[in-house]
């Protein structure tokens, strides 16, 4: 397998020398693209490791589960909190061994396998030029007139859609299905993934879109546009943390370890905010880029542990499906 | 087995192996069949219903449109016929954005309704799904029927005119028999495409009511990693598609017209002002419905073109080389399989879930090689497989007619198979071959198919780049890349299609 990695490395248009050791990182597709953080991560890490970091984009967890212990991956980058149970049970990951003291997450994090590198919260993003008076709470959103249109993502095909049904579950508990029924007439449509939803929102199709508290930072920093805002609800917002993990069968344990340590360094953390348009997981707020510091943050953060999320998942998706199929 | 049947058998085995092999690999890995969940039956009902409606509306609307195009000659007709093919080859993501620009809350239509003080319309719901599927498939149905009209020998119309047949009698004796032969196949192929609809149905369907089987497969593979359920669902999908194919085969039986001289002559039956006006109306409405969303995609993408960088052009060149290779492969495959039962076998290519296909191929290849190193060959193969049903639908009627009409003569002359191909079959099939090649190339450029598991950062294709751009907030650059995709798809389609029709119209 080493030989194949090596051969692929020779063929790939890479700046690294062929004799360097190769660190293979499986990552989400959006991370690896030239507009994602991948190229910068590669550059920064290669400068310190004397190695060749190679990203393999695509379906992260399905691919790893298909490959099992034969995988070439040394590190997996871009897992999400709501699917860690399945990942952990595969037994494919090794402890990360990184000191968690620098973490600045809004929740306590003690996991020895999955290491957070950035986070955000689910939120409804709106255009303040178009929607001058957004709902002030989740309840107010349910009670809003039905001509307020929102676009969502499907919890069966999208990680942000899954976070949304867990968010509704956390806020409304037993009343979740009733809450969905009240929301239903306001839902313009439900899309496969975040990109389609956000595209419809920027086309002016809907008043609000299910996105993240960090989305406005992109518009502020990249476009100098302050009209896109996240509506902050006092009931709280559901936390989404992105994670990396070391693969147990790695043939580059030292490099993999070095990569894991690298994720919590200030250098990486300062880059990831604008690299992945998320809050850094180990950087105090005063060190965030300017556009991030001015964002409204929720006072209450909602979060289910992986066991809770796994137990509630099917039930919450069914409640969503039943209420919206009426 | 005779020498002549050998290529057909090999081609059919290749299809069956490529479809059933991956499904079996997924099933083998899963260990047992999964169970269908509570939402799956609802999804199955919705899938069938929307596919039936979409195929029916597309085929029915295509009849007057194809008839109008078949009997009118006007400046720009060739370009219009080519342009009408464009929606079918659009990547779904781009097409949905185009439709939303016209029919959406903020679209042109609702803007006009608002200005006129009328209530606005919503595109989201079952009708939106059907609208989108008609947008995609009306052009395909029209082209297939148009081919049928062209295949009626001009001598028959001349004879009808000299006998003084009324337009209605002419329709009954010449056009209706052609339609009963061609339309069921067009219906079936569209029905099968719509069976595996996923992103369109979800985005425009308005919510979980519009869940399709393909979404359930996606969920099973990517979220639950429940491969048994994915295999079960894809077998259900395959079964439905093959059933549709068999029904169409039965309905579409019937004799051809015999050989003519393959010329298009003026139609004496369509000279009245009334029929002229009606034809013009059909053509005008269809052009507006099909071309306006494309025009808006183009207009919005123009500024975005400036934002594109080197990565896009590299992706575009990968897409093009994959497209050319798939086209060649698909045409050879289709020529070998061009018979009635071959067409049913070919339907499996679009009936199998791309996700299950990709997962199965990954499982099969993984012990042998690094699947990533085969990203482009696998994409080529799968694109050819998925375009095969269309190529067959286009080629089969005329290939069979050529065999019926000239087979005995060729036998009497003792033509070798190669000479038969070169002297008789290929020249007869020039027009459909061009059309099939254009469609295959364009579909391949726009396809996202199995790429997800085989995504290689250095071998990205253009549709993947569009998704990556959108996933990174680069909506403007994404519209630019979408325009590039549209231009390339359509360019490839036009070149091949034009090549096939050149000189054939004279």
From TrEMBL, chain A:
One of its GO terms (biological process) is thiamine transport. Residues 1-18 form the signal peptide. Gene3D superfamilies: Periplasmic binding protein-like II. The keyword Transport applies. The keyword Cell division does not apply. GO terms for molecular function: thiamine binding; thiamine pyrophosphate binding. Keywords: Periplasm, Signal, Transport. It comes from the Bacteria. InterPro entries: SBP, ThiB, ThiB-like. It is found in: Periplasm. One of its GO terms (cellular component) is outer membrane-bounded periplasmic space. Belongs to the bacterial solute-binding protein 1 family. PANTHER family: THIAMINE-BINDING PERIPLASMIC PROTEIN, THIAMINE-BINDING PERIPLASMIC PROTEIN-RELATED. This is Thiamine-binding periplasmic protein.
Automatic annotation (TrEMBL), chain B:
It is found in: Cell membrane. PANTHER family: MOLYBDENUM TRANSPORT SYSTEM PERMEASE PROTEIN MODB, THIAMINE TRANSPORT SYSTEM PERMEASE PROTEIN THIP. It is a multi-pass membrane protein. Residues 44-248, 312-496 form the ABC transmembrane type-1 domain. The keyword DNA repair does not apply. InterPro entries: MetI-like (IPR000515), MetI-like_sf (IPR035906). Keywords: Cell membrane, Membrane, Transmembrane, Transmembrane helix, Transport. This is Thiamine transport system permease protein. GO terms for biological process: transmembrane transport. It comes from the Bacteria. The chain crosses the membrane at residues 49-66, 78-103, 123-145, 186-206, 227-260, 280-299, 320-338, 344-365, 372-394, 433-455, 475-496. The keyword Thylakoid does not apply. GO terms for cellular component: plasma membrane.
């Amino acid at each position: 397998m080493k030989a194949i990695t090596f051969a692929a490395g020779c063929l790939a248009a890479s700046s690294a020398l062929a004799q360097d050791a190769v660190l293979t990182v499986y990552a989400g597709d959006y991370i690896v693209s030239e507009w994602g953080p991948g190229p910068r991560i590669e550059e920064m890490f290669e400068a310190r490791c004397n190695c060749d970091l190679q990203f393999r984009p695509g379906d992260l967890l399905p691919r790893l589960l298909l490959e099992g212990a034969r995988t070439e991956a040394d590190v997996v980058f871009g897992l999400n909190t709501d699917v860690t149970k399945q990942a952990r049970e595969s037994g494919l990951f090794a402890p990360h061994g990184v000191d968690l003291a620098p973490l600045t997450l809004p929740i306590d994090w003690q996991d020895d396998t999955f290491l957070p590198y950035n986070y955000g919260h689910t939120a409804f993003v709106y255009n303040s030029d178009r929607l001058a008076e957004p709902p002030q709470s989740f309840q107010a959103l349910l009670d809003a007139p039905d001509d307020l249109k929102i676009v969502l993502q499907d919890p069966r095909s999208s990680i942000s859609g899954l976070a949304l049904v867990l968010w509704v579950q956390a806020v409304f508990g037993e009343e979740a299905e009733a809450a969905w029924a009240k929301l239903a007439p306001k839902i313009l449509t439900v899309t496969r993934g975040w990109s389609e939803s956000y595209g419809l929102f920027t086309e002016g199709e809907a008043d609000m879109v299910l996105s993240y508290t960090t989305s406005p930072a992109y518009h502020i920093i990249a476009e100098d546009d302050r009209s896109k805002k996240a509506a902050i609800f006092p009931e709280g917002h559901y936390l989404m943390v992105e994670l990396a993990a070391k693969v147990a069968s790695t043939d580059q344990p030292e490099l993999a370890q070095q990569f894991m340590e690298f994720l919590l360094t200030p250098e990486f953390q300062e880059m990831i905010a604008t690299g992945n348009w998320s809050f850094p997981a180990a950087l105090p707020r005063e060190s965030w880029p300017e556009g991030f510091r001015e964002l409204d943050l929720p006072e209450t953060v909602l979060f289910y542990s992986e066991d809770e999320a796994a137990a509630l998942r099917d039930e919450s998706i069914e409640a969503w499906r039943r209420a919206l199929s009426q | 087995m005779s020498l002549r049947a050998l290529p057909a058998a090999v081609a059919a085995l290749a299809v069956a192996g490529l479809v059933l092999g991956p499904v079996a690999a997924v099933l083998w890995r899963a260990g047992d069949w999964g169970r269908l969940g509570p939402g799956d039956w609802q999804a199955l009902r919705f899938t069938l219903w929307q596919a039936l409606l979409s195929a029916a509306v597309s085929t029915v609307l295509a009849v007057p449109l194809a008839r109008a195009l078949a009997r009118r000659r006007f400046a720009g007709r060739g370009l219009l016929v080519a342009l009408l093919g464009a929606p079918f080859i659009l990547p779904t993501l781009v097409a949905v954005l185009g439709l939303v620009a016209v029919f959406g809350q903020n679209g042109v239509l609702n803007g006009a309704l608002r200005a006129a003080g009328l209530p606005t319309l919503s595109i989201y719901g079952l009708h939106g799904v059907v609208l989108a599927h008609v947008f995609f498939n009306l052009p395909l149905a029209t082209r297939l029927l148009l081919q049928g009209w062209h295949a009626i020998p001009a001598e028959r119309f001349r004879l009808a005119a000299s006998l003084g047949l009324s337009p209605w009698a002419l329709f009954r004796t010449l056009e209706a028999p052609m339609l009963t032969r061609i339309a069921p196949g067009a219906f079936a192929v569209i029905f099968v495409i719509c069976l595996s609809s996923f992103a369109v149905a979800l985005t425009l369907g308005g919510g979980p009511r519009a869940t399709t089987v393909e979404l359930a497969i996606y969920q099973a593979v990517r979220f639950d990693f429940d491969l048994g359920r994915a295999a079960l669902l894809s077998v259900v999908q395959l079964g439905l598609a093959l059933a549709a194919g068999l029904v169409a085969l039965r309905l579409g039986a019937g004799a051809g017209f015999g050989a003519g001289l393959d010329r298009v002559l003026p139609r004496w039956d369509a000279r009245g002002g009334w029929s002229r006006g009606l034809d013009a109306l059909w053509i005008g409405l269809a052009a507006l419905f099909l071309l306006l969303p494309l025009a808006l995609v183009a207009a919005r993408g123009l500024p975005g073109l400036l934002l594109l960088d080197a990565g896009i052009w590299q992706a575009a060149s990968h897409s093009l080389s994959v497209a050319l290779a798939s086209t060649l492969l698909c045409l050879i495959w289709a020529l070998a399989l061009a018979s009635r039962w071959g067409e049913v076998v070919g339907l499996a290519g679009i009936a199998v879930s791309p996700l299950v296909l990709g997962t199965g191929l990954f499982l099969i290849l993984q012990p042998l090689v690094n699947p990533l190193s085969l990203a482009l060959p696998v994409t080529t193969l799968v694109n050819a497989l998925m375009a095969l049903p269309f190529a067959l639908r286009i080629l089969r009627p005329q290939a069979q007619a050529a065999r019926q009409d000239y087979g005995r003569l060729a036998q009497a002359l003792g033509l070798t198979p190669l000479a038969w191909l070169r002297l008789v079959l290929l020249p007869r099939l020039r027009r459909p071959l061009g059309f099939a090649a254009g469609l295959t190339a364009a579909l391949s450029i726009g396809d996202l198919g199995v790429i997800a598991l085989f995504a290689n950062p250095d071998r990205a294709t253009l549709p993947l780049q569009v998704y990556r751009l959108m996933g990174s907030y680069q909506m403007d650059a994404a519209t630019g890349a979408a325009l590039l995709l549209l231009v390339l798809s359509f360019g490839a389609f036009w070149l091949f299609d034009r090549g096939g029709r050149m000189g054939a119209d004279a």
